[in-house]
Amino acid sequence: MQGDHGFMRNDVANLVILKKLHVAPRPAPTRLPISVSWRPPPLGWIKINTDGSSQGAPGIMCTGGVFKRTDGSVLCCFHTSEGVGFAFLAELLAVIVALE
């Protein structure tokens, strides 16, 4: 079981455990994919797309970002290595680095 939601993880190990305990499985609902596409910024603006990640929790953090013009062309980009931390912190650091 996972969390307070009463749903099982959708994996074989959990199904086997539930069957041995004679408990009816209650799989987590399937999420439908959502189409996401990049939209250019308004005329005269620059759009900054950032991302951050960590290899583990905690783990080595990295950040990156791309600055794009209205026509979608790349103005500049960056990437950094930020030491050890969590993915959420890496995401925040990516925004801070972009704004600096």
TrEMBL record:
RNase H type-1 domain residues are 42-100
Could you give a GO molecular-function term held by this entry?
A: nucleic acid binding
Which InterPro entries does the entry mention?
RNase_H-like, RNase_H-like_dom_plant, RNaseH-like_sf, RNaseH_domain, RNaseH_sf
Q: What is this protein called?
A: RNase H type-1 domain-containing protein
Q: What organism does the record attribute this protein to?
A: Perilla frutescens var. hirtella
